[in-house]
């Protein structure tokens, strides 16, 4: 799991009104003063799966995080985490939390994230591998699309010469991207993940993708280029990034030691829990 508090889409309309929007289909609003918080949200959510996303226009996005204390949570963008609806996760956490309280809103956030981790993120290993495969496939597709900018004739006229040129361009672009990804901020969950350990787990997932994305399209990659692509995927996986299939969680309310209400937004991305434990 990857969490980030960096939002480009938070708008401070006034000192007490905050609009948080994602894409054209989603908006949530929080109105804060020294005594209370008022929250509102539209009903559009994205239901994600390994083979794509669907948008639904009727969903609950506002929940109480505790039945005993003034703390709530708003959900936007993706309504599921891997395959489990956030509504189910939140209700299970609320039951476990019971009468427990924390000094600050941030403490509720930290405890909620620990709860997710303790439950293996509500996904078995096969589901995790399926989502990791989808992530790798999506990254490979982005690499190919970058290469094909202004070069569509290479696939429209697939001569042997054009195929070889395409392979060379893929090699160049992969070599270009690796240091860029390597220099980015690493997700804390993957700080200790070594490249050899990653290969042990990821090779059985990546090799079929190389076959379907390249070999089946008569693009025979060298062993060196295949290794470069695996290294690129390694750095992309470890990168702390803003992805389109994230969930926005906004923790709002009062901690026991807080005089005024707080609003704390974070982004949650999928990170493979089994791979994280290697």
Please provide a written account of the structure.
It is a single chain. The chain has two domains: 151 residues, Glutamine Phosphoribosylpyrophosphate, subunit 1, domain 1, CATH 3.60.20; 114 residues, no CATH class. Helix 3 packs across helix 7 and helix 5 packs parallel to helix 7. The strands form four sheets. Strands 1-13-12-9-8 form a five-stranded antiparallel beta sheet. Strands 2-3-4-5 form a four-stranded antiparallel beta sheet, with no helix packed on it. Strands 6-7 form a two-stranded antiparallel ribbon. By secondary structure, it is α+β, with helices and mostly antiparallel strands. Strand 6 and strand 7 form a beta hairpin. The longest helix is centred in the middle third of the chain and has 23 residues. It is built from eight helices and 13 strands.
Strands, helices and their partners?
Elements: E1 2-4, E2 10-14, E3 17-22, E4 26-32, E5 37-41, E6 45-49, E7 52-56, E8 62-64, E9 71-77, E10 80-81, E11 84-85, H1 86-97, H2 105-118, H3 125-147, H4 153-156, H5 160-182, H6 195-213, H7 223-238, E12 247-253, E13 262-269, H8 273-276
Antiparallel strand pairs: 1-13, 2-3, 3-4, 4-5, 6-7, 8-9, 9-12, 10-11, 12-13
How do the strands of the widest beta sheet line up side by side?
A: 1-13-12-9-8
Main sheet specs: 5 strands, antiparallel
Q: What general outline do the C-alpha atoms trace?
A: elongated
The rounded Rg comes to 22 Å
Low-confidence stretches: 1-24
Defining key terms:
Glutamine Phosphoribosylpyrophosphate, subunit 1, domain 1, elongated, 8 helices, 5-stranded antiparallel sheet, 41% helix, disordered N terminus, 4-stranded antiparallel sheet, 13 strands, alpha+beta, 278 residues
